[in-house]
Amino acid sequence: MALRTIVTEGDPELRKKSKEVGEVTDRIKEILADMVDTMRESNGVGLAGPQIGIKRRLFVAEPNPEANPPLVYYMIDPEIYEEEGEEVDDEGCLSVPGLIGTVTRPAKIKMRAKDINGDIQDYEFEGFEARVMCHEYDHLNGVLYIDKATDIREPSYDEDEDGEYDEEEIDDRAEGEAE
């Protein structure tokens, strides 16, 4: 597999609506595998086609990278057909590096998409998983989280892009300050 270059905010291609994939070919499967590698290499939990310059309605998501075995969702031509409730939390994005913002998202969603084999699947997500799916789904419509966010800011030294404590980042900063 190959790592892909992530398109960042400011590139007008991120603002375009993606076209349907249609048939899941070997080429689409190869792109999806590259997306998983790129997402993991970048420490992300999701990556949409437009973020690597592919203007098709597809994304990959791994909302719990610590899961054993890993569970990657391959979403092709997805549709969110039901939303319930709302939750407010911080988000970051590989296409908007170095910033986080507070975003209101549905607490629960129902989604239909083709899987990596081209079979139509129905999914229900809630909490963080629903947030990840909605975030990636927005990319397919040319929407970035910063379009919906309030309090856009750089993460503080004790939180990462998910608003979580990042011990490695603090260790790195401490080493830099000591030099």
Topology diagram in text:
Blueprint: H1 26-41, E1 46-48, E2 58-61, E3 73-84, E4 87-93, E5 96-105, E6 108-114, E7 120-126, H2 128-140, E8 150-153, H3 167-178
What does this structure look like?
23% of the residues lie in helices and 30% in strands. It is built from 3 helices and 8 strands. Strands 1-2-3-6-7 form a 5-stranded antiparallel beta sheet, with helices on both faces. The radius of gyration is 16 Å and the shape is globular.
The shape, in one word, is globular
Overall mean pLDDT stands at 89
Strand content: 25-35%
Main sheet: strands, sense, barrel: 5 strands, antiparallel
Proportion of helical residues: 10-25%
Class by alpha and beta content: alpha+beta
How big is the Rg? Answer: 16 Å
Short description:
The protein has 179 residues and is of the alpha+beta class. The chain has helices spanning 26-41, 128-140, 167-178; strands at 46-48, 58-61, 73-84, 87-93, 96-105, 108-114, 120-126, 150-153. The chain is globular and about 40 Å long.
Task: Provide keyphrases for this structure.
single chain; 179 residues; five-stranded antiparallel beta sheet; 3 helices
